[in-house]
Design brief:
The protein is an all-alpha fold and 134 residues long. Helices cover 81% and strands 0% of the residues. It folds into 2 domains: 73 residues, Arc Repressor Mutant, subunit A (Orthogonal Bundle), CATH 1.10.10; 53 residues, Winged helix-like DNA-binding domain superfamily/Winged helix DNA-binding domain (Arc Repressor Mutant, subunit A, Orthogonal Bundle), CATH 1.10.10.10.
Length: 134
C-alpha cells in the first residue's frame, strides 16, 4: 500500500500527462471536492456521464503509472547489465545529480575523460534499452 507521500509524487509526475479533460475531472472531484452532481452541472452533462468520465480519468492515470513502472523496471534491469564503471558514472550524474565536472573530480579523472566515459555509458544503456524493447 502506498503512503500519502508516494501518492503525491505519483500525482505530480503523471497528472500533467493526462488529457486536459481527464485532469479537469480529477481536479473537480478530488482537488476541489465537488460532488458528481456539482461537476455534472458545471460541465453541462448528466451525473452518470460525470461518473463515467471521472472513472475513465482515474483509469487513464493508473495506466500511465503502470506504464511508467514498466519503463523504470526496464531501465533498472538494463542498468544492472552494465559494467560497474558504467553504472557508477550514470549513477553519479543521473541519479545523484552530480554535475559531470564534479563527477570527474570524484572519480579523479580529467573532465574530458569523464565526458567520454559518460557518453559511452549512455550509448551502452541506450543500446540495451533498444534491445529490450524488441
Amino acid at each position: 500500500m502506498e503512503t500519502h507521500d508516494e501518492a503525491e509524487v505519483i500525482i505530480k509526475k503523471y497528472f500533467p500527462m493526462l488529457r486536459s479533460d481527464s485532469r479537469a475531472m480529477i481536479e473537480n472531484i478530488l482537488s476541489q471536492g465537488r460532488s458528481f452532481r456539482e461537476t455534472a452541472e458545471l460541465l453541462g452533462i448528466e451525473v452518470g456521464a460525470a461518473r463515467v468520465r471521472y472513472h475513465r480519468a482515474i483509469r487513464q492515470l493508473r495506466d500511465l503509472v503502470i506504464q511508467g513502472d514498466h519503463k523504470l523496471k526496464r531501465i533498472q534491469d538494463n542498468l544492472s547489465r552494465l559494467e560497474e564503471r558504467d553504472r557508477s558514472i550514470l549513477n553519479l550524474v543521473l541519479v545523484q545529480g552530480v554535475s559531470p565536472k564534479d563527477a570527474a573530480l570524484v572519480l579523479r579523472v580529467q573532465p574530458a575523460t569523464f565526458y567520454k566515459r559518460y557518453e559511452r555509458a549512455l550509448k551502452r544503456l541506450e543500446s540495451l534499452q533498444r534491445e529490450s524493447k524488441d
